UniProtKB/TrEMBL annotation, chain A:
Function, as annotated: Catalyzes the reduction of sulfite to sulfide, a step in the biosynthesis of sulfur-containing amino acids and cofactors.
Residue intervals of the FAD/NAD(P)-binding domain: 13-303
Organism classification: Bacteria, Bacillati, Actinomycetota, Actinomycetes, Micrococcales
Keyword 4Fe-4S: yes
Biological process according to GO: energy derivation by oxidation of organic compounds; nitrate assimilation
Cofactor: FAD; [2Fe-2S] cluster; siroheme; [4Fe-4S] cluster
Residue numbers binding siroheme: 697
Major enzyme class: oxidoreductase
Name of the protein described by the UniProt record: assimilatory sulfite reductase (ferredoxin)
From TrEMBL, chain B:
Species assigned in the record: Dermacoccus abyssi
The entry's keywords: Nitrate assimilation, Oxidoreductase
Xref: Gene3D superfamilies: Rieske [2Fe-2S] iron-sulphur domain
Name of the protein: Nitrite reductase (NAD(P)H) small subunit
Region (Disordered): 1-22
Lineage, opening ranks: Bacteria, Bacillati, Actinomycetota, Actinomycetes, Micrococcales
Claim: Ligase is one of the keywords in the record: no
Compositional bias (Low complexity): 1-18
GO biological process: nitrate assimilation
GO molecular function (one): nitrite reductase [NAD(P)H] activity
Chain ranges of the Rieske-like [2Fe-2S] domain: 25-84, 102-146
Length: 879, 161
């Protein structure tokens, strides 16, 4: 019966104005909770793209693809109940008719309207603020325009740096200064208040922040009012003038002086707005019109407008809940933030300015290491109220959830000295209701229940709780909670490699290297128990090979290899192997092709071009491998290591030599790289790509290391892969020379080889690396760990010691002896190997094929490609 | 399609006779050809393909070369090692009862889908109804010899081919 009612009731129309971060969260909440399918949702946004992660806007300048910022998978926007209209500005809300009208005159009737129009960037009323070269910093279009302008200036004035100024020394201003730096422009930050980030940090913190930012080459002027922006001739910015009359030369000005709610539609429709703007809503996000909700930065809730995403997300959940008949209401929010601005950590949380009566401050300041830390505690020094961290904010994740709780230890022990603070915070047991992730409102208890419900790794916890998926500042604490709860729940956090080796691969690698051990037996005696298995044996063989342990089939090592490495070929489902000669960079001569073709033909091998620009020959019996390789090696080919956890291929486009767009010789570079890294054994396979221009035809960003040519050299991207969970590689460095590129890849590979887990590809390795890509940059370019010499030496050793594995096998009778079908019958080939001829080549016969052959319905051939008799009937093979 | 020859350099130094002697034993290979912890494939007196292994401590085993899951003759190319198993299943072959305790067994692992088979019984350690079958094997006068089949193979309900 209820079904009939449900059907009879027409679906309710929800119209959302604005397609920003909070609108996205609202749609997601509606779709995950509206099980009955009551609502159709239409989202109208004026930007030319789906909602994206505005918080991460600055990553646009560090090479992130704008599409990577998109929020909501394609599924959400493909949902038949959801309609997203881009480039659609709403210009009118008719509350009586319950219709909104777009700039193009399209009318959208609604039953429920949700205002999620966010804010616009405020431009102060200084003269000249509309000259060419003035920008704001709010949308992808804004940052794209800024980038375009700076690049244009750079091209027009190659002889001098582009000079930029940012008006506003708050969070946004420092982000913008970072963007200018990333674009290679000089930057000056101009702040009216006497210190930077006046809303987040106190004077002490502001001083330290200024010192750190000065050191980065950004000029800071505090206590300075901007009078006007100047243009000498025409409409292009050439300078600016301050209230004291001083003038400076600048080419670009970014205004980052705050935001104002986009409440103009609401005003025009007669909805109540706050004194300082924002659509007034009650605790359940309802405006003065009960069919209209307002959420996010446009809403004025409990008397104020929130310029942060977390309270906006909470409002999105509340509005969705209200439409679905729930009663939840706004619990209040806090302004806690942790940011990395220009690479400097800044965190501010709770009652940062000690406004609570009787509040005490504990301050630790160290200008030598560049850190300022302040905790605000209650008058009895027992309860944490808030704090400010500048320079080193590692304690933030642990401290923030403790706000309002008893510290249980001397407050100073949380901040002095560095390192101990983390320890003190992490040794505390967070109560279940402590909020851990403020962006997504996830408590410690929710993390724990995720573990109880079977989340077995950090990625699972993140995807089922959403913790750490927005700004990521809470990840260290989420990880700790996850691990300690797993341990407690008796789910041993077993990091051992296998039952024989009680440590993960990363530790084993280091242990073997430091102890200088070179054989499996010694390693097992020292670090393991028993005789090993198919996990630890190949892993140890792989580590020994990475450390330059000689031929992989020499002596005891031979017994450790898995089937592929043991015969230097790839095992296929019927027990035969495939053969892949190396074709560096995918470049091959017609004569080379003829050799491969003739081998394939003579041995009746199924032939296919691989995704890595080489040729795979399938269906070789183990005893045929040496004869096949003899012919290939004689013709100048060498092992392609398709069978190893090692470098596979370097894919390239044709590049400058032929392509009219190419700006560098990508094929030459691909060949150089392939010849340098060939044979390098690693925790998982490694692939590279080299593209000759930004069109990226080699799909290099889908590789572990992707190289893309620029006018000035090469951009290097790392940590990409295809496969089941595709990942785009992230930009590591720009405009490298040939030599710089090779050094960077050398170090990246060797750092990965030295520290990754078994079968961990570079993408998840980078994701788990504390500090991510920035940390990697520090390790590789600034030698932050003092490892560079060692990494370089490892690679030099690898390059010097390389020898073709197959050639060595062919020259060594002892190794050759392993390639036998049966040790006591050299003439007998496995009679169970049967093939069907299909599209003029062979493929293994299935059980079904065999049955059909026995019934006389299908012809089969054997491993010599001769027609076979099955169950008494003679079969003929098609020519 | 032309036909390549079957004999290659790799097998030329191997004795070709595998006819059983009067007592039913047949030569597999010279003892020093058998590297500890790495199997070789050989033909048993009954014509079956078997995997012959010597473990690090010198014991000899012979199990079927045919992978009952993948339906391919590949077992000899698997990694040899040990596995600690909960002794929850009774073994029909040895008449052994389930003890519920842990024990360490010698195993060879399929190179295709990685099931571990007990070298002593030929059984899949996770499903003891599936088995490779076992053969008698011995070393005499520096030669490894294969004898008669000592247990039958057991097939799984599902295969992968
Ligand atoms: C560089 C930068 C860094 C930031 N860093 C942080 C941070 O570290 N932490 C944090 O919490 N917050 C940060 N913020 C703030 C955060 O991005 C905002 O709080 C959040 O985006 C607000 O979401 P919203 O959906 O309310 O508004 P928005 O994301 O601005 O979305 C509103 C959308 O509505 C559209 N729109 C407006 N009017 C109309 C109309 N009439 N018709 C159609 N469409 C319309 C707008 O174009 C926009 O696309 C940062 C912001 C910036 C710019």
């Amino acid at each position: 019966m209820s079904e009939q009612i449900e059907q009879a009731r027409p679906r309710e129309r929800v119209v959302v104005i604005g397609a920003g971060m909070v609108a996205h969260r609202f749609v997601e909440a509606m779709r995950s909770r509206d099980d009955a399918g009551r609502f159709d949702i239409t989202v109208l946004g004026d930007e030319p793209r789906p909602p994206y992660d505005r918080v991460a806007l600055t990553s646009y300048f560090t090479g992130r693809d704008p599409e990577d910022l998109n929020l909501g998978g394609a599924e959400l926007w493909a949902d038949p109940r959801v309609t997203l209209a881009k480039r659609t500005e709403v210009t009118d809300v008719d509350r009586n008719a319950k219709v909104v009208t777009t700039a193009k005159g399209v009318r959208h009737p609604y039953d429920h309207l949700v205002l999620a129009t966010g804010s616009y960037a405020a431009v102060p009323p200084v003269k000249g603020n509309d000259l060419q070269g003035c920008f704001v910093y709010r949308t992808i279009d804004d940052v794209a325009a800024l980038r375009g302008y700076v690049e244009e200036l750079r091209a027009a004035h190659p002889e001098r740096p582009v000079r930029g100024a940012v008006v506003g020394g708050g969070l946004l201003g420092l982000e913008a200064a970072g963007a200018l730096q990333a674009l290679g422009a000089e930057s000056t930050v101009i702040e009216f208040a006497p210190r930077l980030m006046p809303l987040q940090v106190d004077d002490g913190g502001g001083q330290e922040l200024r010192r750190l930012i000065d050191n980065l080459g950004v000029e800071v002027r505090t206590g300075t009012a901007t009078q006007r922006v100047l243009a000498k001739r025409g409409r292009r910015v050439t300078g600016m003038e301050f209230a004291d009359g001083e003038k400076i030369d600048v080419d670009v000005v970014v205004f980052a002086t705050g935001v104002r709610p986009r409440d103009e539609l609401a005003r025009a429709a007669g909805l109540e707005v706050g004194e300082r703007g924002g659509v007034v809503v009650d605790d359940r996000c309802r405006t003065s019109d009960e069919s209209i909700h307002a959420i996010g930065e446009v809403a004025c809730i409990q008397g104020r407008v929130w310029g942060l995403v977390a309270p906006g997300y909470t409002m999105a959940e509340i509005a969705a809940d209200a439409l679905l008949g729930g009663e939840s209401s706004f619990p209040g929010a806090d302004t806690s933030t942790k940011l990395k601005l220009l690479g400097v950590d800044v965190a501010s949380f709770g009652d940062a300015f000690a406004t609570t009566p009787g509040a005490l401050e504990v301050v630790y300041s160290d200008s030598v290491t560049g850190s300022y830390k302040k905790l605000v505690v209650s008058d009895d020094a027992q309860t944490l109220l808030g704090g400010i961290l500048v320079g080193d904010a590692s304690a933030y994740a642990g401290l923030r959830p403790l706000v309002g709780r008893r510290l249980g230890a001397d407050p100073s022990s949380f901040i002095v000295p560095a390192g101990a603070g983390e320890g003190a915070a992490s040794s505390l047991e967070l109560p279940d209701d402590a909020a851990v992730c403020s962006c997504n409102n996830v408590s410690a208890g929710q993390i724990r229940s995720a573990v109880d419900d079977g989340a077995s790794n950090l990625a699972d916890v993140k995807s089922c709780t959403k913790a750490g998926t927005s700004c990521g500042s809470c990840l260290p604490i989420v990880k700790k909670l996850f691990e300690s709860h797993q341990e407690k729940a008796g789910i041993a956090v077993d990091r051992s490699l296998c039952e024989h080796i009680p440590m993960p691969r990363s530790e084993l690698f280091n242990a073997i290297k430091v102890a200088g051990l070179a054989t499996f037996s010694e390693i097992m005696e020292r670090f393991g128990t028993g005789r090993g298995c198919d996990i630890c044996k190949p892993t140890i063989a792989n580590i020994l090979a990475s450390l330059g342990g000689g031929h992989i089939l020499a002596g005891e090592q031979s017994t450790l290899q898995d089937s592929n490495d043991h015969v230097l070929a790839n095992l296929q489902k019927d027990g035969t192997y495939s053969v892949v000669p190396r074709i560096p960079g995918g470049e091959i001569t017609p004569d080379g092709l003829l050799v491969i073709a003739q081998v394939a033909k003579d041995f009746g091998l199924y032939t296919k071009i691989t995704g890595g620009q080489r040729i795979d020959l399938f269906g070789a019996r183990i005893d045929q491998l040496p004869a096949i390789w003899k012919r290939l090696v004689d013709a100048g080919f060498e092992s392609g290591h398709a069978y190893g956890k090692s470098l596979r291929t370097v894919k390239s486009c044709v590049g400058q030599s032929w392509c009219r767009y190419g700006v560098q010789d990508s094929v030459r570079m691909a060949i150089d790289l392939e010849l340098r890294y060939r044979g390098l054994r690693s925790p998982h396979k490694l692939k590279l790509g080299v593209s000759g221009c930004a069109r990226e035809c080699a799909e290099a960003r889908g590789k572990d290391a992707g190289v893309i040519a620029t006018e000035n050299g090469w951009n290097l991207y790392v940590g990409g892969n295809g496969g089941a969970t595709p990942k785009h590689a992230q930009l590591l460095a720009q405009d490298l020379s040939d030599a710089e590129l090779i050094t960077a890849i050398d170090r990246f590979f060797m750092y990965y080889v030295s520290t990754a887990e078994r079968l961990q590809r570079t993408a998840p390795w980078l994701e788990e690396l504390d500090g991510g890509i920035e940390r990697l940059r520090e390790v590789i370019f600034d030698d932050a760990l003092g490892l560079c010499d060692d990494l370089d030496a490892m690679m030099t050793h690898h390059v010097g010691a390389y020898a073709d594995e197959w050639r060595e096998v062919l020259e060594d009778p002892e190794k050759l002896a392993q390639f036998t079908g049966f040790v006591n019958d050299a003439t007998d080939a496995d009679p169970d190997l049967l093939y069907v001829v299909e599209r003029e080549q062979v493929r293994p016969a299935t059980a079904d094929d065999r049955a059909r052959a026995a019934a006389g319905e299908l012809d089969l051939v054997d491993s010599e490609r001769r027609p076979v008799m099955v169950a008494g009937s003679t079969l003929e093979v098609r020519a | 399609m032309s036909r390549p020859s079957t004999s290659t350099e790799s097998t030329s130094n191997v004795s070709v006779s595998n006819a059983p002697d009067l007592e039913g034993w047949t030569r597999a290979c010279d003892a020093d050809r058998l590297v500890p912890e790495r199997a070789v494939a050989a033909l048993a007196p009954d014509g079956a393909q078997v995997a012959v292994v010597r473990t690090a401590d010198g014991r000899l085993f012979a199990v079927g070369h045919h992978d009952p899951y993948a339906l391919a003759n590949v077992i000899a190319r698997g990694v040899v090692g040990t596995r600690t198993v909960a002794d929850e299943t009774a073994s029909e072959k040895t008449g052994q009862e389930a003890t519920g305790q842990e024990r360490v067994v010698d195993v060879i692992q399929s190179p295709l889908y990685k099931q571990a088979f007990d070298l002593a019984t030929g059984e899949d350690v996770e499903d003891r109804s599936v088995s490779l079958g076992t053969w008698a094997v011995r070393e005499r006068d520096g030669v490894i010899e294969l004898g008669e089949r000592t247990s039958e193979a057991g097939h799984p309900e599902r295969t992968t081919r």
